[in-house]
Amino acid sequence: MTAVTEAQIAEWRCAIGREAIERQPLDRLALQRYASAVGHTGDEASVALPHWAFFLPCPADEEIGPDGHLRRGDFLPAISLPRRMYAASSMQFERAIAPGTEGQLTSTIADVSHKSGRTGDLVFVEVQRILEQEGVVRVRERQTYVYREWGDPLTMPDATVSALDGEVWQPDPVNLFRFSAATFNSHRIHYDLPYTTQVEGYPALIVHGPFTAVRLAALAMRTGPLVQFSFRAMAPLFLGQPIYLRQTATDLFEAVRCDGTTAMQAKVSYA
Questions:
Q1: What HEC string does 222-264 produce?
Q2: For 67-105, how does the pLDDT look when each residue is reduced to its tens digit (9 = 90+)?
Q3: I need a labelling partner for 191 at 20 to 30 A (CA). Which of 14, 91, 171, 270 fits?
Q4: Phi and psi (nearest 5°) for 114?
Q5: What's the rounded Cα separation, in Å, for the pair 98 and 188?
Q6: How far is CA 128 from CA 93, 105, 106, 145, in A?
C-alpha cells in the first residue's frame, strides 16, 4: 500500500505554475570561485555550465531543513518523502552569459508527478529556469528533483577486477567542500559523514551530482561549444573511490563507478 495519498499528490500539484523571479549582477568573482571549484583552468568564457555560479540559494538558518536543504513549502512543494535528490537536467545555451551584467532568473514549477513501484513512492518535481540578460534569453534549463523514502542502507561498491576505460577522476574531501561552498549547497550528504551513514544510509560521503555533470560537460566541450546538455543521475558516487569519465558516442558521455555501474549519463549537442 502506497504511503502517498491521492490527496497529497493533488495538494503538491497545486504548486504547478508557481513562479519566482530573481535579479542580480552576475558577479565575475562568483564565476571565478565556481571555475576554481570545478577544476577549470582556462578563461571564463569556456567554463562548463557557468550559469550554476549564480542565483544561489541563500536561506536563513531557520529556513533550513534537517537534511541541510532549504525547508520545503516555500517555492518547492512541501513533499513529505524524506530524501530529495537532483535527478536530471536538460539545458539549452542560446547566448553566452555576460559576467558583470545584471541577470534575471525566472523559475517556474513545471510539473509534479508520482510513481510507485518496487522501490516505493517516488515524487518528481520539474522546475523550468530561464536566465536572461538585457532582455535576451541566455540559458533555458529544466531541472528534475526526485523525492523518495529512505530505503535500505547501501554498501560500498567493490572495485571491478578488469580495468575500466575513461579518464580517472577522484575528488577528495576538499574538492567536495569547495564545490559546496561555490554553489552554496548545504546538503549534509556531501560533508557530514555521521548524518550520511546513520540517517541517509550511504556508506560514504556523496559526490555532488551537479559536480559530476560539470566534469562531463567540460569533457564534452573539448570537442566544441555546447548548445544543449542534458544529464540523468542513475546511481550514487562515493568519496574515496575512482570515477571514470568517458565518451561513448559522438553525443553521449557517462560517469562510471569503480564497480562498472553507470552513475550518470549525459547527452550533448554542438554549435
A1: CCCCEEEEEEEECCCCECCCCEEEEEEECCEEEEECCCCCEEE
A2: 999 888 889 999 999 999 999 999 999 999 999 999 999
A3: 91
A4: -130, 140
A5: 32
A6: 14, 10, 8, 12
Write down all domains in the chain, each with its CATH number in brackets: 6-270 (3.10.129.10)
Tell me the torsion sign for CA atoms 35, 39, 41, 45. negative
Distances (CA, A) of 172 to 10, 175, 193: 42, 5, 14
Q: pTM, whole model, 2 decimals?
A: 0.95
Rounded Cα–Cα distance for residues 205 and 237 (Å) = 9
Any idea which residue has 523514502 for its cell?
149
Residue 202 CB contacts under 8 Å (≥ 6 apart), including other chains: 153, 154, 189, 196, 236, 238
Length of the chain (residues): 271
Q: How far apart are CA 26 and CA 95, in angstroms?
A: 15
Which grid cell is 186? Answer: 548545504
Asked if residues 224 and 232 have their Cβ atoms less than 8 Å apart, the reply is: no
Q: Which three cell numbers stand for residue 204?
A: 560514504
- The CA dihedral of 230, 233, 238, 241, to the nearest 10 degrees, is -60
The string of pLDDT tens digits covering residues 173-214 is: 999 999 999 999 999 999 999 999 999 999 999 999 999 999
String of DSSP letters for 6-39? HHHHHHHHTTTT-EEEEEEE--HHHHHHHHHHTT
User: Measured between alpha carbons, how far is 213 from 147 in angstroms, rounded to an integer?
Assistant: 20
